[in-house]
Write a structure and sequence with these properties.
2 strands; globular; two-stranded antiparallel sheet; single chain
Length: 153
């Protein structure tokens, strides 16, 4: 299983991010490529604890849905899950500025959350509830992969 815990998988994601262009066409959803890059940055900030996102979890999302999302060997489908308002670039998310700088920020955030001393103890995901360190890094990879596939990267 791919995860941001592995240097090889982080490199793959970083390289795919570098192929993105502001005008890359989307395959689903409503975000532009630049909004998607900022969305990834906001989600990494949420993972770090720098961006608060209101909880919307339930017993079902904390158990069954979390297990399916993290461990079922399939790609996440496009256009099926509504983005939380705090990480939606048309809502409370970070507005795009300069594309290359925003991409560089995402790569830096990804590297930061994977430093050996990073501790996710007590971090609560808004949909999946409490998660282990390994689950946060698995989710990070899957989320980034999902949105990069959204733009053909």
């Amino acid at each position: 299983m791919k995860t941001l815990a592995r240097a090889h998988d982080r490199t793959e994601i970083a390289e795919r991010l570098q192929t993105m262009r502001p005008d890359s066409p989307r395959r689903w959803g409503r975000m532009s490529a630049h909004q998607m890059v900022c969305h990834l940055g906001d989600c990494l900030r949420m993972t770090r604890g720098d961006k608060e996102v209101r909880r919307a979890d339930s017993l079902r999302t904390r158990t069954v849905v979390k297990w399916i999302a993290l461990y079922l060997p399939m790609s996440w489908p496009g256009g099926r899950i509504k983005t939380r308002p705090e990480v939606d670039q048309e809502g409370g998310g970070t507005r795009p500025t300069e594309f290359a700088a925003d991409v560089a920020a995402v790569v830096a955030l990804m590297e930061d959350i994977t430093t050996p001393d990073r501790d996710f103890h007590g971090r609560i995901h808004p949909t999946f509830g409490p998660m282990s360190h390994a689950e946060w890094l698995r989710l990070g990879y899957l989320h980034m992969d999902h949105h990069l596939r959204q733009f053909g990267a």
